[in-house]
Amino acid sequence: MGRDGGGVRAASASSIEITFQYQGVRCRERIALKPTAANLKKAEQHKAAIEYSIANGTFDYAATFPKSKRALTFRRTDASQTIGDYLTEWLERKTPTLKSSTVAFYATTIRAILKPMFGDLPLNELSKKIIREKMSTYQVVNKTLMNVQSCFRSALNDAVEDEILESNPLSGWAYKNREQLKEEDDVDPFTREEQLAILAAARGDTWPQLQFSFWTGLRPSELIALEWGDIDWIAGEIRVVRAKTRAAKEPESTKTLAGRRTVKLLAPAREALLKQKELTFLAGGRVFLNTITGEPWKHAGYIYRVIWMPAMKKSGVRWRRPYQSRHTYASMMLSAGENPMWVAKQLGHKDWTMIAKVYGRWMPSADVGAGGRAEALFAGNASVMTTSPLDDAV
C-alpha cells in the first residue's frame, strides 16, 4: 500500500500505483509519475478525489483512466443508451462471473435475438408493452421464449441495481405464445427389446457406455464428464457433480443445484462399469473416452457420430436421438412403480412436478386393489381412527 497504508505506493522507478474500490471491484491503476515524496502526495490527493467522485456518483472511469483495460468494463451508462450497446457492455462485465456455457448462450441470444429485436431502442423507452409486442413476433416454443427473456431480465435487473433504470419492465412476468397441443412430444423411450437390439449392435468398446446411459438417466453432458473418483462402489452410488458442454473447454459444475446428486448404481449400470474398467480404469480420470481417439469426449455431439449412429443403423431400431436414453431410464423406473420423488432426484430435478408433467403416462394408474390397505387399517377399527374435527367441537 502507500506510505501510510492508504492505497498509494511506488510501482516502479517511473510510476505510482493507486488502489481503490469501485462497483465492488478492487481496482489498481498506475500514474506516470516518479515516486518522489511530492508525487506520492499528489497521488494521494488524486485518489481522494476519485473516491469522492465515486461517493457522489460522478466518477467516470474511462475519462479518468482512458488507457486502462478496465475503462470499457466500467464505461458509464445512462438510460438513453441503446439497448444493443448496453447488452454488449453488460455481457462483458458479467463474463468473468458466469460459466462458459452460460456466456455462450447469452452471447448468441443477444446477437441473434435481442439486438435485432430491441437493439436500436433507447434503454429508457423500453416498456412491458414493447416487450410483449416484439416477443409476439418471435414464433418459437415457449421454452425458447422463456430462455431469451431470462437473459434479458438478468441484464435489466443489473440496470436497475446500477440505478440506470428505475424498474425492470420484465420483472414478475414473461411473455408466452399460445401453443397448440402436440399430438406427440419428444419423450419417446426405447422398449427393452429395442435396448437389447441396440446393445447387440454396438461394438464391444462402446457397449458399456450405452448400457450405462440406459440405466442411470445421466444427461450426455454429465456422462462424458464422469470420473472414476465419482463412483462409490461400496455405497453403490454415482456422484454427479459436473458436466462437459460444447462451449466449455473443461467440465463445469452442473447446470442447477439439484443437478448435483447421487444416482443409485443399479445392477445393469454396475455391469457396464465393470466392463469399462478394463478399458479406462488404469488411466484414471474420465470413465468414458472417445473410442476412436482414446481422449476425453470434447462434447456430447461426438457420441452421436462415433457411438450412437453406427449402433442405431445396425440395430434396425426406429431412429431416436441419444437423449432418449435418459427418457428410457425415467420411463422404466416409473413403469416399475418406483417413487416419483425418488426418480426426480435420480434425474436431477428439484421436485417431481416435472416428472409428472413429462412422464405422467408411465406412472401406473391405481390398481383394482387400491385403497385396500387403508380400508383394512382404518375401517371398523376405532383405536387407529383419527379424531374428527366435529368431535372436537362438541
UniProtKB/TrEMBL annotation:
It comes from the Bacteria. Residues 81-160 form the Core-binding (CB) domain. Pfam families: Arm-DNA-bind_2 (PF12167), Phage_int_SAM_3 (PF14659), Phage_integrase (PF00589). The keyword DNA-binding applies. Keywords: DNA integration, DNA recombination, DNA-binding. Signal peptide: none annotated. Coiled coil: none annotated. This is Arm DNA-binding domain-containing protein. The lineage of its organism: Bacteria, Pseudomonadati, Pseudomonadota, Gammaproteobacteria, Pseudomonadales.
